[in-house]
Amino acid sequence: MLRIFYRTCLYMVTLITPGLAIPAPATAVAVDEHPATVAEKMLAGIHQATWVQEGKGPHVVYIFFDPDCPYCHQIYVDTRDWIKRDAMEFRWIPVGVLTVTSPGKAAAILAAKDPLKAFYQNEEHFARGEGGGGIDEALVMEDKTKKALDMNASLLRLSGFDAVPTLLFRADNGEAVVIRGAPPGDKLKQILGYVK
After folding, report:
1. DSSP state of 127
2. What span, in angstroms and rounded, lies between the C-alpha atoms of 144 and 102?
3. pLDDT by residue (tens digit) across 82-91?
4. Cβ(104)–Cβ(141) under 8 Å?
5. Are the beta carbons of 179 and 9 closer than 8 angstroms?
6. With a threshold of 0.70, does the pTM exceed it?
7. Residue 21 in 3-state DSSP?
């Protein structure tokens, strides 16, 4: 069973090409590191991240996302049932790496009076064609917000890529797990079943 889980975790990675995120089969291994080592490093520094908390379930998953990323949006869509059942706590970690509007939209989410409401604005009004996320860019990015986004991006780079979405969690066997890319809904459901 655990072998199936790890095959599922290694299923897909999102590669970033100039301005375009495309899914591609690959392993979740950084160039010189085992995925568990990468995941442990990321979890060790995760307290430095700034995230938007959604849900109050007993199981925690960190999700690095770009406000303009259609694959990140699909993860959002595929996690609605988990939120409705109070089964998970998702900690959405914004980064601005895909488009010219991504940093401003990520800043708008983090700097909002109610970041969760801003996050929902982005996701519920997401445009799959041009434009991506449904929130307007922040007109001015305060230093505090810029530092938070820079820290989020540096934590994401520990995975070996600037790939979004990237999921990070501790599995029920105690191991740290990092998944780059957007697994299909049925695979995501299987993966989330292993979260501690």
Report:
1. B
2. 17
3. 999 999 999 9
4. yes
5. yes
6. yes
7. strand
What's the pLDDT score for residue 22? Answer: 34
For 157-167, the pLDDT digits (tens) are 998 888 999 99
Q: Prior bond to 23 cis, omega within 30?
A: no
Determine the Cα–Cα distance for residues 94 and 153; give it in Å rounded to an integer. Answer: 8
What's the per-residue H, E or C state across 133-156? CCCCCCCCCCHHHHHHHHHHHHHH
- Contacts of 19 by beta carbon, 8 Å cutoff, 6+ apart: 98, 99
pLDDT at 128: 78
Domain ranges of the chain: 2-192
- Cα 125 to the chain's mean position, in Å? 18
Give the number of C-alpha atoms closer than 13 A to the C-alpha of residue 2, restricted to the C-beta side: 6
Tallying the residues shown for the chain, one arrives at: 196
Written as six digits, the tokens of 44 are: 């060790």
pLDDT digits (tens, 9 = 90+) for 6-30: 444 433 333 322 233 333 333 333 3
Report, as ranges of residue numbers, the positions in the chain whose pLDDT lies below 50.
2-32
CATH number of 2-192: 3.40.30.10
